[in-house]
Amino acid sequence: MSMNLRCTVCHKPYVGPQNHFVCTHCGASVESPVDLRRDPEGLRRVIREGSADGIWGYRDFFCVAPDAEPVTMGEGNTPLLRAKRLAERYGMTELYLKNETLNPSGTYKDRFATVAMTLAREDGIRQVAIGSAGNAAAAVAAYAAKAGMECYIMLPPGAVKERAWQNMAYGGHFIYGMGGVNDCVQMAEDGEKIFGWKNMCTTMMNNPLACDGYKTIAYEIARSMRFEAPDYVVCPVGGGIIVSKIYKGYEEMLELGLIDRLPKMIAVQAAGCAPLVKAYDEGKTATEKWENGDTIAFAIFDPVTFEGVTALHTVRSSGGRAVAVTDDELLAAMRECARLEAVLPEPASAATVAAAAKLHAEGYIKPEDRVVCVLTGSGLRDLKLYAKENDDTPQVRPGDMDSLRRAVEHYRKQGD
Ligand SMILES: *Cc1c(COP(=O)(O)O)cnc(C)c1O
Ligand SMILES: [Zn+2]
User: Fold this and answer.
1) What is the model's pTM?
2) Spacing, Cα 38 to ligand 2 middle (Å)
3) How far apart are CA 301 and CA 317, in angstroms?
4) Nearest-CA neighbor of 345 among 331, 359, 355, 357?
5) Which of 128, 129, 273, 395 is least surrounded, with the fewest CB atoms within 10 Å of its CB?
């Protein structure tokens, strides 16, 4: 497949190294644009019809050989849930949750991994490696298992244990990368030179073509909403890829005439590590490394925003904004998602709901606005953060009706 790469921001053609893609003119990320004028009616039909075969029904929007056999596990096609109880709680009218927790490995990163692994197999790759906070590695390890490929995984020591176990369950060769996520990404790049691994890091900087898998989130939301763009799409930001690629998907649909306006993108970070929000607030076009960060939202705990230039450009040109939420705010939103909508997002994902509530409370989001929060990953690996079991959990002895009555009384008193 010939790569026709250009800069996402200044649109100059990309010429440079083929393993570390950054625009040499403006520092933005690189993409392989789809030629939308070649067969616009065909492309419109693809998006209108959707995909029953993982995300591969949309393959005309990826730069993958037409005859490549996909490594797929039925990723994508996740529901867009109308969150009525949550909206009521916040005084909003139309709040939607794009439930990406239902993907095969539990996060939207499967949309990347399916494309990345398909490209790797086409290239005859046998060994892959990835540095990650945990979710990207889980996705790549899962699809590597499916493809029968060996997979090396570097996670920082602070990584959530449940993520590490999930990686090992898929047969990934697990290694602690003694540093931050950015150091782990660097280790995968180093291994590429020494061992000939294919570096599968989920960045446009490393894998610009595979990141196009994320555009399918926009196509799916558009189909679910009958091709009316919402006012806001709220995305968590770690490396800054998903927010940029969802917007890219919308831009393509606008150019194809499937929708008649674009949503505004809200980029959400944790207050304890918010390099993009800081750069946004200061009017800068690039992010700086965040020192001594700390947040429970490990999946977006990225001191270095790999695609900062592109993500800032995306947020600004969409007319949206960047916002930070505290760990307390995102934890509260996480529990409310579970109790009111029966969806279990992980902390990084619940940050979007916290941000929507906050921006609505501030009057930035209006009561009549249609808002989509992207719940990127599953909290099934974070149940400790939800659980409230404690010493006063009632106990009932078999046949003892009084203890059963006291147990019920206990919850009646709590009012829940
Ligand atoms: C990776 C990840 C993010 C951050 O996405 P970027 O594309 O790196 O900005 C958000 N939420 C979850 C659950 C993730 O795994
Ligand atoms: Zn550029």
Assistant:
1) 0.96
2) 25
3) 25
4) 331
5) 395
Half-sphere exposure of 47 (CA within 13 A, CB side): 31
Choose the most confident range, by mean pLDDT, from 17-26, 193-202, 282-291.
282-291
Per-residue tokens: 130: 């990835």
Residue pair 200/140 in contact by the 8 Å Cβ criterion: yes
Query: What's the full length of the chain, in residues?
Result: 416
Residue 258 CB contacts under 8 Å (≥ 6 apart), including other chains: 44, 47, 48, 222, 227
Q: Which two tokens stand for residue 386?
A: 């939800």
348 in ligand 1 pocket by Cβ < 6 Å?
yes
C-alpha 97/C-alpha 356 separation (Å) is 11
- Whether 349 is in the pocket of ligand 1, judged by its Cβ within 6 Å, is yes
What are the φ/ψ torsions at residue 233 (nearest 5 degrees)? -115, 125
308 touches ligand 1 (CB under 6 Å): no
Instruction: Check whether 1 has a pLDDT greater than 60.
Output: no
Rounded distance between C-alpha atoms, residue 368 and residue 370, angstroms: 7
Question: Terminus-to-terminus CA distance in the chain, angstroms?
Answer: 58
The ligand whose atoms approach the alpha carbon of 21 most closely is 2
Judged against a pLDDT cut of 90, whether residue 392 lies above it is answered with: no
> What is the token pair recorded at 148?
């029968």
What letter represents residue 338's amino acid?
A: A
How large is the average pLDDT for residues 203-226?
Answer: 97
Cβ 223 vs Cβ 160: under 8 Å:
no
Atom of ligand 1 nearest to the CA of 235: 10
Ligand 1 atom nearest to 346, measured from its CA: 13
List of residues 6+ apart from 217 with CB closer than 8 A: 98, 100, 108, 111, 242, 245, 246, 249, 374
Contacts 24+ apart (CB under 8 A), 381-387: 381/106, 381/160, 381/162, 381/163, 381/166, 381/346, 382/160, 382/162, 382/346, 382/347, 383/344, 385/296, 385/331, 385/334, 385/347, 386/334, 386/335, 386/338, 386/344
Which residue CA neighbors atom 14 of ligand 1 most closely? 299
Distance of CA 405 from the midpoint of ligand 1 (Å): 46
- What secondary structure letter does DSSP report for 103? S
Q: Which residue has the tokens 């995909």?
A: 51
- Ligand number nearest to the C-alpha of 315: 1
